[in-house]
Amino acid sequence: MLIHSASQLLTLTGGPQRGKALGSLGVIENGAVVMREERIVAVGTTDELRNAYPDEPTLDAGRCVLMPGFVDPHTHLIWAGDRANEFEMKMSGTPYLDILAAGGGILSTVKATRTASIETLMAETRPRMLRMFRHGTTTAEAKTGYGLQTSTELRLLKALIALNDESPLELAFTFLGAHAIAPEYREDPQAYADEVANTMLPMLKEWWETHAPRHSPPFVDVFCETKAFTLEQSRQILTRARSLGFPLKIHADEFDNLGGASLAAEMNAASADHLVVTSDADIEALGRSDTVAVALPCTPFGLAESHYTPAKKLLDANAMLAIATDCNPGTSWNESMQFAIALACRYMKLTPAQAIAAATINAAHAIRRADSVGSIEAGKQADMLILSVNDYRQIGYRYGTNLVKHIIKRGQVYSVDVGYYRTA
Ligand code: NIG
Ligand code: FE
Questions:
Q1: To pair with 215 at 20 to 30 A between CA atoms, which of 155, 371, 384, 424?
Q2: Helix or strand holding residue 43 (H, E)
Q3: Does 271 share its domain with 404?
């Protein structure tokens, strides 16, 4: 199929974008793309590709923006229940970490998740995935982390694998058994860190080899934070994960600076995420590394806090910056990368072009999939969006409504518009 007459085709070619190179969209005016089956086979202007592929079936992009599907590289997609009550408490002044320390927060979702069947977990997660997809996310990372015991953590992975198989939204899996100290280990957090490193990770490896041999191994992530895992415990868990062959991620500097970002850089993690209170030394370390700095602007927004990831400092240090939704029931229940972009522009002072690159090619690199998704190039997966606007700067400028009109995932075209209709 030949998709033609895009006002602006944003190709994002050239690989992940470091430091001040962020924002190179590779725009082709009056652009066109040819795709066959799951893949992109040609990219150019409408005139060029119409001449080269005269017999191809066509789809008219209608003078709209054509761009890569969004990649959301940090979500806690699977959980049971909700925490609307805690939102009310937070808005009345109780801090997030105090709610966690009192057995709420992550731990209240853990309680609901442990008792949920795999069917319930899948049924509650499906509509979230559909909303993500409708808002233009064609690939998303998805973490476990609301089980904090081997049986539930593996049930979450099993559910995520099944959801990935049934849905056009493609998932990259992450094991986050170290999301919080399990309630059983409240008095002895080190024993839980030992349990994750010495028992859960080896079991995960064995389970993955028998249950998911066709998927590449999941990332292993740790919440390095006061009242969660110390820097030393994070190092212990990530070191064990690396020795078992898992790629790494880390939650660092969301509330307190413990040095997690430097640890990620030192251990060659795929990404270090949150990075709100990151020190200058940590930023320098990220800038010298291949670890992507993933900012989660929906999280301070969701918590009504005023500090955001210092994007300018990261870019000055030559870091690779990506953005994600952090979709989770506690701090950021939001499925839209368009909204993450709107916040990144306002609070991290990114231009729309920078935020778009952070939400596509750099986000793909944060889950180590930049060779297959995140840009529009011959040979890559045909994952694209046709928006309802003709100028990419409308993305970020406008927010709270969905600008996606068509989603193309692995060459299949899906439509968002239903128009007005009456049921009776
Ligand atoms: O990324 N920081 C830890 N995890 C999530 C919050 C999870 C929750 O509150 O349920 C986050 O913000
Ligand atoms: Fe998170």
A1: 384
A2: strand 39-45
A3: no
